[in-house]
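Just wondering, does anyone understand what follows?

——
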Amino acid sequence: MPEGKRGPAATCPGSTAAHVAANVRRLREQQGLSTYQLARAMQAASRPIPQSGVSRIEAGHRRVDVDDLVAFAVVFGVSPAALLLPLNDASTNDVDITGAGTVPADIAWAWASNERPLAMGDADPRVVIAEYRLRSLPPGQWHRAALPEPTSGAAPHESTGETP
């Protein structure tokens, strides 16, 4: 590819970008902010985005980079995950995750909350979850990666990791 040209993946927003756009609008409206007020709050957070930029983000016409995403999370007082996923965690609701495809919303939220990986595989689910947490946490938080205790004698369900 010639230098200076970008491929479709670099310029076309994916499903996660759509979730971010919808969540920026949702959180802005929930907090009673105008696009001008949100732009001023982003300026105060040292991540200036003009009012027109906020409007373009909400319309899905402007990409949000990771620094913008984190600044929005700080301004709104939420976790970055609250911007990345739809605000519905029902197991009957599917969420499209960029790079992973469609997964049940409860699994997507458990993944984003560092509770479990998106896919469990065939290994012991307790080991898979513990290894996921070890890879996802800094050493000072590894105590949170301890093997979860089974809740009954039943084997955990492959897709959810929960016991029936």
